[in-house]
Design goal:
Elements: H1 7-10, H2 20-28, H3 30-54, H4 59-85, H5 97-103, H6 112-137, H7 141-168, H8 171-191
This protein binds fe (ii) ion (2 copies).
The site of one fe (ii) ion has 7 residues, from helix 3, helix 4 and helix 7.
């Protein structure tokens, strides 16, 4: 099923839409997108495990984040095999300014878990939006199939993170914070250069 790019907007996580300029640049350099994407999936697995390490006393979180880490590693492998098949080599991770700027917004003590969950949720939601755009516009049916599958998974993950934030914090506090962080996310996207990468 072709993913619906507006689905994450419906539950009010993302406050902006990716520009057509991004889609054109991404489609024109899928090698660069795949390389960045592989690093994103690898970091998504590592982030899930960092929550397991930091909050090992929360049983539900440990179960869900360890399952997520496995799934993100499967995504990494799928994207990695695709880039190797194209004659590319993964190479060093050049870093992700988008994610770094967002993660820097997490409060240091009180509210830290809520913030980390919501920030990871926003990253998943933005990934979902962009992977879905690629799925809808890629010429290669095989690559479009892969991106459809991954876009649908990232939408599910975005919801998982927001649901977990509500599980461990007050509903009103989470709703307030998700709006603040979504505003910050939209501003970060608007101020970053448009490049052929996932974020
Ligand atoms: Fe993923
Ligand atoms: Fe994900």
């Amino acid at each position: 099923m072709i993913p619906d790019t507006s689905s994450c907007l419906k539950w009010a996580v993302l406050l902006s839409q990716t520009s057509p300029e991004w889609l054109a640049k991404a489609l024109a350099d899928m090698d660069a997108v795949l390389l960045d994407h592989a690093h994103c999936e690898k970091k998504a697995a590592a982030s899930a495990m960092s929550l397991v390490a930091g909050y090992s006393f929360h049983e539900e979180l440990v179960r869900k984040m360890s399952a997520l880490a496995i799934e993100e590693l499967q995504h990494f492998r799928a994207v990695y095999e695709r880039l190797v098949a194209r004659g590319l080599s993964l190479g060093r991770d050049p870093g992700d300014p988008y994610a770094q700027k967002l993660i820097a917004l997490a409060r240091p003590r009180e509210g830290r878990l809520t913030d980390r969950l919501l920030i990871f949720g926003l990253i998943e939601a933005r990934s979902h939006e962009r992977l879905a755009l690629l799925a809808q516009n890629l010429k290669s049916p095989e690559l479009a199939r892969l991106y459809t599958e991954l876009a649908n998974a990232e939408s599910r993950h975005a919801k998982l993170f927001v649901d977990l934030a509500h599980r461990y914090d007050d509903d009103a506090a989470v709703s307030r914070r998700v709006t603040e962080l979504a505003q910050a996310e939209a501003a970060i996207v608007a101020n970053l250069p448009v490049e052929p990468r996932v974020h």
